[in-house]
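Q: What would this chain look like folded?
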Amino acid sequence: MVSTIVTIALIVLSVVLDQVSKYLVVANMELGQSIDIIPGVFRFTYIHNYGAAFGSMTDARWIFMILSTLAIIAIFVYLFWKKPQSKLLRAALIFVAGGGIGNMIDRVYLGYVIDFIDFCVFPNLWMWIFNIADACVCIGAGLLALWMILDIIKDEKAKKAAAAEIADESTENAEQSENGEEDA
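A: My prediction, written as structure tokens:
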């Protein structure tokens, strides 16, 4: 029960942080305006994103919205029905769900997503403007990838341990057979 409440609270927190930050940008900036936070490195630039992640799939907005909705539903079903025991997996799914919901709210109510986080230090390498929801989804995806790698490593170690145990038993059985033949 506590885990469910904490999970819901963390998802809601990520959505609230995303929506409040977007509200503050809209209330205090003009569309297209940039404000340097760390000159030449980081700024807030208020834009509307009509596509998917980093402005991609602009012409397929409805397909992306349907797929996003299905993914969010699948995450909720998995989180609350399967109740994964791994804290890392739960954290990954919480970040992805919260970020997905934050951007979905914009898409449904505005028809676009409000983006404003602009790292401008490497303009030829990184040119995308994003928001807290996007950051949550990316962090969640990274944590999910980390969980998958660690899970594969854990499985491989378990297989090696099982194989070593079988080899030890075979050696033990062979020694017992030899000892039994010598005694006879």
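The helical segments are 2-28, 61-82, 87-110, 132-183.
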